[in-house]
Design a protein that fits this description.
This protein is an alpha/beta fold. The chain has a domain at about 5-120 and about 195-245: Rossmann fold. It is built from seven helices and 14 strands. It has helices at about 30-45, 60-65, 80-90, 100-105, 110-120, 210-215, 215-240, and strands at about 5, 10, 15, 15-25, 45-50, 70-75, 95-100, 120-125, 130-135, 150-155, 160, 165-175, 185-195, 200-205. The strands form three sheets. It has a ten-stranded mixed beta sheet, with helices on both faces. Strands 2-3 form a two-stranded antiparallel sheet. The longest helix has 23 residues, at about 215-240.
Amino acid sequence: MMGLHYHAFSNGAEIMKKALIVRGGWDGHEPKQIGDLFAGLLEADGFGVTVSDTLEPFDDADDLKELDLIVPVWTMGELSNERAENVSEAIANGTGMAGCHGGMCDAFRTNVLWQFITGGNWVSHPGGDGVEYVVNILNSSSPLTEGIEDFTVASEQYYLHIDPAVEVLATTRYPVFRWYHSSNGSVDMPVVWTKRWGLGRIYYTSLGHHADIMQLPGPKELMRRGMIWAAEGKRIARDSGLDASLYAAEGKMF
């Protein structure tokens, strides 16, 4: 298939977890560099990784269900309902999804199913790139943030519309850059969160406007842990003998 790049899929007798990275859309978010960075992190943790420069892998629902993890790195694209439903069914059956910044939560603005799955969507970044802000790690029992301290970045500070079902792991205080929204007073905007979709695990961080931000120790480690955590859902579902029928229902959802 055109646009696919295959990385290592074996580690002796051990069966590797399988991850798919789809990268593309708006070049300003450096999808190739971000995709390569994430592929390297996953391979270092024992994953077999397929990198696609197209959305064609979303056409095969059965193949998606065989994955442990989907990593979208695709800003401002278009996603058909059929492809969104294939991704939805795979995640509902245990395939995890993890992503960052606009590559996941500004990926497909016209697809509400995608937004429902991911747990939020971008609406603004007051001040643009280079705004200095603090990422506050919340007190939590989650191993995803254990040992990580608050840190400061100079980047886009994302303002998102958030699913109230998400579990927030880190926030940032608004406003840093004054704009019309400032008249509402200070708010703590989620930066890192998790949620569930059927049996699947979802992980998101709004960090990562450019690849250099994801190379910083805090953002890089948060993303690494998030991808591993999201991928574990498949094994847990399998070992527990669960399938998506536990949550399936008839009726019009969209």
